[in-house]
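hiii, so i know i said id send this last week but things got crazy w the move. better late than never?? heres the sequnce for the chain we talked about at the cafe, plus the structure i predicted for it. fair warning i was half asleep when i ran it
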Amino acid sequence: MTKEQIREIIDNQRSFFRNDKTRSVDSRLEYLRKFKSSLVRYEGEMIDAVKHDMGRADVETFFMELNMNMDELDYALRNIRSWTKHQKVRTPFLFFKSSSAIYPEPYGTALIISAWNFPFLQLFSPLVGAIAAGNTAVLKPSSDSPSCASVANKIIRETFPPEYVIVLEGETEITTMLLEELFDYIFFTGSPRVGKFIMEAAAKHLTPVTLELGGKSPVIIDGDAHIDLAAKRVVWGKYYNAGQICVSPDHVYVHKRIKQQFIDAAKKYIKQFYGENPKTGPDYGFIINDRNFHRITEYLKEGTVIYGGQTEERTRYIAPTIIDNLPDDAKMRKDEIFAPILPVIEFTDINDVIKSLKNQQKPLSLYYFSEDPLKQKRIIAETSSGGVTINDTMAHGGTVYLPFGGVGNSGMGAYHGKKTFDTFTHYKSVMNHSTIYDSPLKYAPYKGKLKMLKTLIKFLP
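okay and structure toks below
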């Protein structure tokens, strides 16, 4: 695809938007319903495509991608009429006989760039908000999950005209060319490293962005935690999609008193979930590409492998692994692991953990296990992260009723539910100033008016 072809696609979308083809709420609802029908019709193909690209279990794909997209669609369909109404707000008495309101309006043409690890959720969930808000959209799926990109393209082609929504498949060169063009909004999901590149490109056009990034999402298991349940939920979160999730538990701080109990329970649940040999089972995936496989195998040289550690380059298999005795200068202490490797770090004083977290980049998620409500409140108050789940992992990211997004190095902006609509909406302030009365105080000459104005303001409601 050439730059000229990309420019023509964007020009066609901009023309479609400027002709008010996306303004009608009835039209938005019609297309969202068509989109929902398409997702139902292609459910099997989406599950098969994810299986082909990363070996993920069907249940995981249904639960974390297809079901969540349906939640987004259903929530938007139920609420879009109320979301799109203007909201009247109070007007100061100084503007006597005037009215004020906030009008939601679409930005225009949006660019949505998704990552490979949740290729349908990260592409379609933002799209729901973009359409509900009245935008057109260019979608760029990751080239690392090509089967998923192909199915996504098929779904969009059968649901929307290309001047409304279009999928552009291809390598990173396509993304680079897209970012050279003017968009009205950019929504990106990926790594902090690439996020900086996206933001730099957007800055050239002063384009607003949402960056859904990642980071080292820590788990803290305090001494009073329900150890067995904590281990079960950490294992579920860590090895879901073979650890290739932005909100996956990165590493675990475990109180020294219960460390061994946690490790024993974690081993038990790995075997219970995936069997003695996960490679031959139906519920455990593989690493997305050779580059990531080799990156991850280097991590296995750090610390002491106390469970797992087996690899197979041909199938890009890395076993669910637990590591102890991780050196302070280990790469896994600095890098987002994004792999089925769980370092266990013991602590004796929660103050030390909190202090350490304050000195690190803010993560996308933080997970705390404790039965003490006061300790839970303290962790929420004294740490900063995109979101927090207490006594579980990843759960806060699975609801349309909580905004999902990062802070600092883990991203900016948020989506899910109403927040997805808000993300792709400009809220325009409108004052309708009355012609019945026109105060002489605001006009020059001002001589003698300051004292009168101060007195008037003092007594105004």
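btw Residues 58-83 form the longest helix (26 residues). thought thatd interest u
miss u guys!!
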